[in-house]
Design goal:
two-stranded antiparallel ribbon, globular, 201 residues, 9 strands, single chain, alpha+beta, 23% helix
Length: 201
């Protein structure tokens, strides 16, 4: 049955503040911390979202990538401010960055669509917004093919679910849609399909 009235009693300004504050926190981390303390030859930024950032390191940990002249300040003040003492903790701590996933290969196609693959233990972390991962077992090969092979530019997937009409009737649906797409419009993608740079706007 449809509701005759919907009570809106949530202060929307709280959600707006949380989102904006998270963006500010992320920008401070990228520019004031990574940009100031980390050797640029040891790091490559891969992907970022409102509350997470992906990076590739040419060493085993972020601590090893700190510039020699910044190491004292890093371990005295910066590290404790931005990270928990135990980096392997899975408990979320407001304002601090945890290691959510790690691997040997990253393929990012566009916003909220990426895979982190570890070839040593064959584990993966998959993000693919709008795709039912339970019935669409996408893997590293699907992401590689979509990124590198123009003839397989778009991988189609199947979604299943239910929809309710305004009369209260329930229907089951099957939806075929593009699941993986190499189109990325937030940055300029170079001819190698991997390297990107800022849009000249």
């Amino acid at each position: 049955m449809l509701k005759n009235k919907i009570r809106m009693d949530c202060a929307e300004i709280i959600g707006y503040f949380i989102l904006k504050n998270a963006k500010k926190h992320m920008l401070e981390f990228v520019y004031d911390i990574l940009g100031e303390f980390i050797d640029p030859r040891m790091i490559e930024l891969l992907d970022t979202d409102t509350d997470s950032i992906g990076m590739s390191l040419a060493c085993h940990s972020l601590d090893e990538a700190v510039l020699p002249e910044k190491r004292n300040e890093w371990f005295k003040t910066v590290r404790e401010r931005w990270f928990p003492r135990n980096m392997e903790l899975k408990e979320k701590i407001p304002g601090k960055f945890l290691i959510e996933a790690s691997g040997t290969e990253f393929v990012g196609l566009n916003a909220k669509t990426y895979i982190i693959w570890d070839e040593d233990d064959e584990k993966k972390k998959l993000a693919c917004k709008g795709v039912m991962k339970r019935i669409n077992p996408l893997g590293i090969d699907d992401f590689r093919r979509t990124l590198l092979d123009p003839s397989h530019a778009c991988e189609t997937v199947l979604n299943k679910g239910f929809i309710r009409t305004p009369k209260g009737e329930m229907f089951r649906y099957d939806q075929t849609r593009v699941g993986l797409n190499p189109l990325y419009c937030k940055r300029y993608v170079h001819n190698d399909t991997i390297t990107t740079s800022n849009l000249n706007l």
